[in-house]
Design a protein that fits this description.
With about 300 residues, this protein is an alpha/beta fold. The protein has two domains: about 150 residues, Rossmann fold (3-Layer(aba) Sandwich); about 120 residues, Elongation Factor Tu (Ef-tu), domain 3. It is built from ten helices and 16 strands. The strands form four sheets. It has a six-stranded parallel β-sheet with strand order 1-4-3-2-5-8, sandwiched between helices. Strands 11-16-13-14-15-12 form a six-stranded antiparallel β-sheet. Strands 6-7 form a two-stranded antiparallel sheet. The longest helix has 20 residues. About 35% of the residues are buried.
């Protein structure tokens, strides 16, 4: 997959795509239905999205809401067969474009797209004044075919990023999976930590969760993809998402123990998929109790993951 972080000066090989357009936070089944409608035999499959998310520009002090960072979204889109990913740099200048200017200057002249698919609830342009129907009319005038995808439902309810956030916040990753079509994942670089897990016999890969809407804090059974480096591959594990009350920490992070793994992962990129919530964070009366609980957590996670 080729990624673009601008919409001007693209070469001929990067133009002429059939694209799905939206924020695609979570890349859930509704988003995937939009992407599927953009698949054509006569044009490369593309996605037009925005980075940072518009809400981060207009409400920078709001609580974190994103299900995915840009890396996780790109990784998921690549798995869906997207060839061209256009991450438009979203700022107030882009937001100030009228719907007509956005279609003409960005989609037609800038990206040179042939076909655009959006969800029925898509809004765009200054003040979010443009609707999907407006995009269809403006697209026709600019020589761009536009398809409006209907909203899809799961068990009678519309699939939405909001419903997925709720499921994750309540410790229901399997319900989130039913709406997403894949495990909710946190992707990122493995950072140096305080190496307590290694000293306890359970080494962990530490990752930042800054800027993300967090699932319920606690311990999870997880599926892990090591995306880079000599240990690339798929693993099972147990992960702790939280503030480590045993050690007086207060900044959330993700610590993942990979089963039956030996090697150095510092600086590599991981994708950690949340499968089952095992328990909340606890503060133990000493290290022996903590180690015993970690052993029990790992045993339970192995059983759960072996049954998938």
């Amino acid at each position: 997959m080729k990624q673009h972080h601008h919409w001007q000066g693209l070469g001929a090989a990067d133009r002429g795509a059939s694209v799905a357009m939206g924020n695609f936070d979570g890349v859930h089944l509704g988003h995937q239905s939009v992407i599927d409608l953009a698949r054509r035999a006569d044009a490369p499959l593309g996605v037009v999205t925005f980075e940072p998310h518009p809400r981060q520009v207009f409400a920078p002090d709001a609580p974190p809401f994103r299900l995915m960072n840009a890396e996780a979204r790109a990784n998921r889109l690549a798995r869906l067969g997207v060839i061209q990913l256009y991450e438009l740099p979203f700022d107030r200048a882009l937001a100030a474009l009228t719907p007509a200017d956005f279609v003409q200057r960005v989609l037609a002249e800038g990206l040179g797209v042939r076909h655009v698919v959006v969800g029925a609830d898509f809004c765009f342009g200054k003040g979010r004044a443009g609707r999907a129907e407006d995009l269809a009319a403006l697209g026709r005038a600019a020589g761009i075919e536009v398809t409006i995808a209907p909203l899809i439902k799961a068990e009678g309810a519309e699939i939405s990023s909001t419903a997925i956030r709720t499921a994750l916040a309540e410790g229901r990753p399997r319900d989130a999976h039913a709406m997403m079509g894949h495990w909710h994942r946190i992707d990122g670089e493995v950072l140096h930590g305080e190496k307590r897990g290694r000293d306890l016999g359970y080494p962990t890969a530490n990752m930042s969760v800054a800027g993300l809407h967090l699932p319920k804090l606690g311990v999870y059974a997880v599926k892990v993809d090591v995306l880079t480096g000599p240990h690339r591959g798929a693993y099972h594990g147990a992960a702790s998402l939280g503030v480590r009350p045993m050690f007086g920490q207060n900044l959330p992070n993700l610590e993942t123990h990979l089963f039956d793994f030996k090697g150095d992962l510092y600086g590599e990129h991981l994708s950690v998929g949340f499968v089952d919530y095992l328990r909340p964070e606890l503060k133990f009366d000493g290290l022996p109790a903590l180690i015993a609980q970690m052993e029990a957590d790992c045993a339970r996670a192995r059983t759960i993951l072996a049954a998938l």
